[in-house]
Amino acid sequence: MPELPEVETIARKLNASLAGSRILSVDLRWERSLAEPSPAEFVRRLNGQTFEQVSRRGKFLHLSLSADHMLIHLRMSGDLQVVSGVHLPEKHDRLVLDLSGDRCLVFNDTRKFGRIWLVKDPDQVLGKLGPEPLADDLTVQVFQKRLGERHRQLKPLLLDQTFLAGLGNIYTDEVLHIAKLHPCLLSDSLSEAQVEKLWLAIRDILQEGIRRKGSSFDRVYRGGDFQNHFRVYGRAGLVCPVCGTTIERMLVGQRSTHFCPNCQPGKDG
Known about the structure:
Distance between the termini: 32 Å
Structural class: alpha+beta
Radius of gyration: 20 Å
Strand order of the largest sheet: 2-9-5-4-3
CATH superfamily of the largest domain: MutM-like, N-terminal
Number of strands: 11
Number of helices: 7
């Protein structure tokens, strides 16, 4: 599933391509990809609108239109591309929008988990998300307060999109390794110094991920190379790049978690 750096990379690319493009026709090829409204209303409202801006909120793509907002969550295998010229629909295409300028916007989703919303107010969908990790107003003091108000293990809490929007399994593992924090440490047990390390690690890792255009970890998310710089994620049995200890894998909150037992000792370590 794409996380903040991958979705940000896609949003930036789409914004450069779509701004000012008008929707000439709507081909909704898999109605269950649509969360709301009804398929008929979706086609009727979308047809003829113009793209104004494409941005990101958490793991959602936010496509601002002349009259509505289209929100897309790519989930496990969703992909959104602008295709030039004639596009012959492929097997896993779920939505194809014919655009001005002899182009199409194609939503392809092999596993069918991706979802699309067309709403007047984006907060209908995005309103429950936590703050953006890179936002200026998420200061270390605000972050410390949010951590201290909760009594949860760090890994599941950082994955909770209502706590912080955009982090997923890959970047959380990388962040916790840089911050030298065990994934099972409780959020309200951290010292001020540990909170600051975690806050800085989140910002550093996400900015580096964006700079490297995310991680290309399967055929869908192309072009990024952050996967070549993973410290712990997916490296169980290999050595830690910092201390040489063997990286371990365990389940935390039913999620596969990679960590270095030497760099990230538990509370008794």
